[in-house]
Amino acid sequence: MALLEINNIEKRFGGVVAVRNVNMIVNQGERIGLIGANGAGKTTLFAIIAGNQRPTSGTITFDGERISGRRPDAVSRRGVARTFQIVRPFGELSVMENLAIGAMFGARQERSIDEAEARASEILKDVGLTDRAADFASDLTLAGRKRLEVARALATEPKLLMLDEVLAGLTPSEINEAVAMIRDLQEKYKLTVIMVEHVLRAVMQLCERIVVLHHGEKIAEGSPEQVSSDPAVIEAYLGTSKSLGTSRS
Amino acid sequence: MIRGLDKITGTLLVALFALIVLWPTFASNYEIGVGFDTMRWGALALSWVVLSGMTGYFSFGHVVFFGLGAYIVAVTWLVLPWWGGVLLSGVGAGILAIMVGYPCLRVRGPYFVILTFGVAELVKFIVINIEAGLSMSGRMLLGGPSTITLYYSMGVLAVLAFILAFWVRQSRFGAGLRAIREDEDAAETLGIPVHRYKMTAFVLSAIIPGMVGGLFVIRGAFFEPPNVFDPRVSLTMIAMAVMGGSDDPRGTVVGVIFLALLSQYLWANFPQLYAIIVGLLLVIFVLAAPDGMWGRWQAAKRRSRSMQTQDS
Question: Fewer CB atoms < 10 Å away: N or C end of chain A?
């Protein structure tokens, strides 16, 4: 069943076309990877889905309801959550408060603060931040703040979770941990996940389907194997090299 | 037990409340006046915190609500009973906040600071010109209530302002406001209706200052626009909130008492140094401890707690 339908979405900034005529369907429970070089329009597409930016034209339907053109808070209440590429923790609030705020708003709309904190505690356990609950969010390491970013989005009880480069800047062992964490969270909370990622190895491991953007256009879509052997993708990514798959082994 | 209120601060607050209630029974007339002024500043600073402490939208023009409240009481002095004028001041301040909030809350940071300051000056000069047009050089407000009545009325406003700020601070609404302060875009993406919340906070933070202005002008028995629209009123409430701590109304109370006592001492002993010393203190706090005395104390408590857990 289609959870998210993106129809002919286009976004222009003055004369620059950031996203050109993108169509995409995301089914319930899928893990989708969104890849592409810098400036391909991945983050812009996220921002349009989440309501942070209005599309120039086109429509987005989520869970049977049109969400394009709505404010981010309204989109969030319907069950869409996103993280930010450059993490945006509420720095002067505690880790616990960051998550409790997510639970109090978003799709969860928890009215009781105690209940919100109970949900926050559970998610903190899932992402391994329980020990840091009382610390200021700004005191976390980058890896910790990336986890917090995911956890806070998760606290809103989304159906669709959009992860914007949550692995970027992490060490290889941190990446392995984060990949395992995302997989566990997806199963436990029955999430549909779209992830923008430059760490291709992780995308190939995690995602069932990959969409490739290039200069704002969708140039390929399919399983990791299909996409990594697609000539258009290889050209867009590497120019001349033969295969993307080498980094996987 | 009320959430977020530990035994010590709870006890201190009850003691403070008892002091406010009993003060007139043993204080001199002059000291009752000091109490009235301290509570006036308390009501103003705590109201300011509801908007600026929680959302980070730093209002530099909160005197406008105070001044408008004073003006409403002055204009209705012979028409309404004094308390009717004071209540109307609250309503008027709330309506002004709705009118001003919509354009002002669209901008953030320094622009909001400048805009609120500008609006306060604008309203001041509008009132000055209206009064000049009516050939009024000030209005006498004769036959007001007794000092004790005014004292307790101000006490009610100060306590209400504290309850409001305290409720906001530990409510879901306040959590949304503090998220806006930290990162408005992230807050909106998490589902917080930022526009409605900011507007509500703005109106809530305006009503009590309006009524405080009304009581102030009754006590002075004389209305003069430059006096009640003085930008230093905004500055003083900000200084108190920042020095005490603007993220928590308990800290604000500490700041109000600290600066009110300091002002008394300085005015009595070094009147020529008053503004210099207060300004210097504000600079030091903004640079070294923007979270105020309360914030510093909380940080120290956190540090000692984490040291204990490391030791064990």
Answer: C
Could you give the CA distance from residue A22 to residue A7 in angstroms, rounded to a whole number? 7
Which contacts (CB < 8 Å, 24+ apart) does range A59-68 have? A59/A7, A59/A8, A59/A9, A60/A4, A60/A5, A60/A6, A60/A7, A60/A9, A61/A4, A61/A5, A61/A7, A62/A3, A62/A4, A62/A5, A62/A160, A63/A3, A63/A4, A63/A159, A68/A9
Dump pLDDT digits (tens) for B210-226.
Answer: 999 999 999 999 999 99
Tokens at A119, concatenated: 């949900």
Q: How far apart are CA B115 and CA A61, in angstroms?
A: 39
- pTM confidence score: 0.93
Interface probe with B: pick from A71, A83, A90, most Cβ of B within 10 Å: A90
Contacts of B183 in chain A (CB under 8 A): 88-90
Which of B24, B45, B47 shows the shortest CA–CA distance to B36? B24
Euclidean distance between CA atoms B73 and B214, whole angstroms: 5
Reported ipTM: 0.91
Interatomic CA distance for residues A110 and A239, integer angstroms: 50
| Domains of chain A by residue range | 1-78+202-249
Give the pLDDT band of residue B276 (cuts 50, 70, 90): confident
Chain A contact residues (CB < 8 Å to B): 50-52, 71-73, 76-77, 81-82, 84, 88-93, 97, 100-102, 104-107, 109, 111, 113, 116, 134, 152-153, 156
A105/B178 CB distance under 8 A: no
Range list of β-strands (E), A72-203:
80-82, 160-164, 192-196
With an 8 Å Cβ cutoff, are B191 and A106 in contact?
Answer: yes
Q: What is the pLDDT of residue B4?
A: 65
Domain spans of chain B?
A: 7-230
Identify the residue with better confidence: B86 or B267.
B86
- Our CA-based measurement puts residue A148 at a distance from the nearest CA of chain B, in whole angstroms, of 13
pLDDT along chain A (249 residues), means of 10: 93 93 95 91 95 96 95 97 95 95 95 94 95 94 94 97 93 92 95 93 92 93 91 78 48
DSSP A93-127: SBHHHHHHHHHHSTTT----HHHHHHHHHHHHHHH
User: Cα-flanking dihedrals φ and ψ of residue A11, to 5°?
Assistant: -135, 120
Looking at chain B, the whole-number percentage of residues with pLDDT higher than 70 is: 97
Q: Do B190 and A105 touch (CB under 8 A)?
A: yes
B178 touches chain A (CB under 8 A): yes
Task: Say how many residues make up chain B.
Answer: 312
Q: Mind listing the pLDDT tens digit for each residue in B23-40?
A: 999 999 999 999 999 999
B185 and A52 within 8 Å at the Cβ level: the answer is yes
CATH superfamily of A1-78+202-249: P-loop containing nucleotide triphosphate hydrolases (3.40.50.300)
Is residue B175 less than 8 Å (CB to CB) from chain A? yes
Q: How confident is the model at residue B309 (pLDDT cuts 50, 70, 90)?
A: low
Alpha carbons within 13 A on the beta-carbon side of B262 = 19
